[in-house]
Amino acid sequence: MSQPVPGKSSWPELVGVLATLAATAIAHDRPDVSVEVLPPGSPIIPDHNPTRVRVFIDNNAIVTQTPVIG
Q1: CA pair distance 26, 42, nearest whole angstrom
Q2: CA 29, CA 61: separation in Å to the nearest integer?
Q3: Euclidean distance between CA atoms 40 and 61, whole angstroms
């Protein structure tokens, strides 16, 4: 099993992946951040949070944007 990646801040490899798998991968790489999965049309507060990763998905629960910390 791979080790967490403490400095990792983005996950471009997760675009096109199911949300549950993406959230699990992010939590494994960075157990110190919370993961928010956001379906289309979700209200977004435009703030920066260094302990959060937002995962934007489509109606099929597929990741549509590169998840990043913030």
Answers
A1: 20
A2: 21
A3: 10
Whether the pTM exceeds 0.70: the reply is yes
What is the signed CA dihedral for 58, 67, 51, 29, rounded to 10 degrees?
Answer: 120
Give the three-state DSSP class for 37: strand
Q: How far apart (Å, rounded) are the C-alpha atoms in residues 63 and 3?
A: 23
Tokens of residue 23, six digits: 């959230």
pLDDT digit string, tens, across residues 37-52: 999 999 998 899 999 9
> What are the helix and strand counts (H, E) for the chain?
1, 3
